Amino acid sequence: MTEKQPMSQTELKRLVARAALDYIVPGEILGVGTGSTVDQLIDQLPGIRERIPACVSSSERSTKRLEALGFKVLDMNEVESIGVYIDGADEIDPGFAMIKGGGGALTREKIVASISGKFVCIADASKKVDVLGRFPLPVEVIPMAAGAIRRRLEALGASVKLRDFVTDNGCSILDAAGLSISDPKALEDEINSWPGVVTVGLFAHRGADVLLLGTSEGVKTFRKAE
Length: 226
Ligand SMILES: O=C[C@H](O)[C@H](O)[C@H](O)COP(=O)(O)O
Known about the structure:
Elements: H1 9-20, E1 30-32, H2 36-44, E2 55-57, H3 60-68, E3 82-87, E4 91-92, E5 98-99, H4 106-114, E6 116-124, E7 137-141, H5 146-155, E8 159-162, E9 172-177, H6 184-192, E10 197-200, E11 202-203, E12 210-215, E13 218-223
Bound molecules: ribose-5-phosphate.
Catalytic activity: aldehydo-D-ribose 5-phosphate = D-ribulose 5-phosphate
Binding site for substrate: 34-37, 87-90, 100-103, 127
EC number: 5.3.1.6
């Protein structure tokens, strides 16, 4: 008898992306996030093309992918609200707060999430944690403020690296490792209050509503308690 092979991370991502298709409301504008898990989602959207009149996207990368597949991507300024936003995460805690921005799209992701009725997070099982902070926390900053913000993050106990990357907004990213984030909302508020911070990649005030987690036993669905 041949033993069942464990699913690869890519297969888990494809699986949760497929499960997310059920959350797309026919005829509504779809919010599309960024990252390797969302790439799996985008690749499956042509199969339900007739349900999606248009999208808004959280990055140039996703916009290009969507347009290449023939989807209309609207300018965010033309859109007041959307029903569903589907995006990945770098970490998600039991309260559905997330660290995002490993792919550098945190600011636009937060903007799209802020106008969405439902945030559906798609992630493989490795992303579910008890306490946020194993993944370095991305902070998008105005380039001339990078030094000042680095020092403030270090004062919180983080070890900080400037990412070799320019965001879609022309800004820089600092990755702050070593923070154990017991109060994600308070840290989100604090870092966002520092001059020169564009966005911190903590999604605590606007966390996920539904988590679709890809595990070797299949997709597990978690809903945020009301
Ligand atoms: O900036 C990128 C986003 O926040 C992604 O959602 C996050 O990094 C997860 O990406 P992936 O699906 O590639 O693990």
